[in-house]
Amino acid sequence: MPDIFLGNTTTVSQNVTDTSSTGGDSSTRNSTTKARTPENHIHTLASFCLNPVGVHFETQDADEEILLFLRPHFITNLPWIAAGTFFILVPLVIAMYAQLFTQAAPIFSFIPSSYITIFIAFYYLVVLSYIFVSFITWFYNISLVTNKRIVDIDYSDVIYHNVAETKLNLVEDTDYTQTGFIRSLFNYGDVFVQTAGEKMHFDFLAVPQPARAVKIVGDLIGKRKTE
Amino acid sequence: MNAQFFLNPLILIKGGLLILIFLFAIFTLVILNQVLVMNRIISQQPVATVVAWFAVLLVLLSFSLFVATLVIL
After folding, report:
1. pTM: predicted TM-score of the whole model, two decimal places
2. Residue of A54, A122, A140 lying closest to B65 (CB–CB)
């Protein structure tokens, strides 16, 4: 008598096949044997990576593969980079016109140079930590799509972080928006994933190539529904 | 030491700076803790190690500045 209650014991290796535009490039990789290549190597400033190597998260299962790695586009860091550069240059400008300042405010001429040195050192330390906190706020804001679920890691305000995840079979719909000249120029936008889980929707804000990301997630949930 | 010593503007500035720098040093410890927590949640080697070491450097610099302020001023 044939066994009818046994499941399919063969493992299905999840391939992320992307045949969208950008010169018709297609990156098909067998996620069970991931070699480090320039396409899947995560570098410091990476915002979009298929089948990333060198990334894993705390609750990742042994047989779970990360298929898509997303972060906000690097262009979103320009405001704090500009502010940091300005704050770095301010003492230099003041030093150039120090004589004018001491003439305008004689009190500065009575402060010993050691105090001014310590104050400047403290100022630059504060600016350095502002730049560092701004960087890690971007660096740790990550969205992951694996062969089993979607993970959204939000990090903000130094002490706040939130990790949300949902299984792929609970994903109902995906869409994206890309409004404005800057977003169209640099090709980044917001991806929205609607789920049937406790958290109704996942938002991947300002991610690069949102259309491609939506297609990848859509293909995954399409595969899930046909399996 | 009498009361006039503490009313010296430079002493007041030194005291204020010490308090500020100490609070800032505590803040850098908070940043380091958050970096370690986030590196545990999501590991991105080898960049995550560099970020953690930079957070440690920030803590060391802030406490060094505190000691320098205590000694020099």
Report:
1. 0.82
2. A122
